[in-house]
UniProtKB/TrEMBL annotation:
Gene coding for it: Cmc4
Protein name, per record: Cx9C motif-containing protein 4
Pfam families for this protein: CMC4
Keyword vocabulary terms for this entry: Disulfide bond, Mitochondrion
Broad class of where this protein is predominantly found: mitochondrion
UniProt xrefs under InterPro entries: CMC4 (IPR027179), Cys_alpha_HP_mot_SF (IPR009069)
Origin species: Jaculus jaculus
Protein's cellular compartments: Mitochondrion
Length: 66
């Protein structure tokens, strides 16, 4: 049986918050921060729901950016 994702609850909380707030991300910043904190507690690759945040940590410069 696969192990439960340690940050699944926070990911679900984000979805609930977004749905309740007409997908206005700014109204869910506290919940999003909780997921970021959870992701920071586990090694890279341990949580599937954190993979988007892991990619976000090393953003590539957009063309024309300085």
């Amino acid at each position: 049986m696969p192990q439960k994702d340690p940050c699944q609850k926070q990911a679900c909380d984000i979805q609930k918050c977004l749905q309740a707030n007409n997908y206005i991300e700014s109204k869910c910043q506290a919940v999003i921060q909780e997921l970021r904190k959870c992701c920071a507690r586990y090694p890279k690759g341990r949580s599937l729901v954190c993979s988007g945040f892991e990619k976000e940590e090393n953003p590539t410069l957009k063309p024309g950016a300085k």
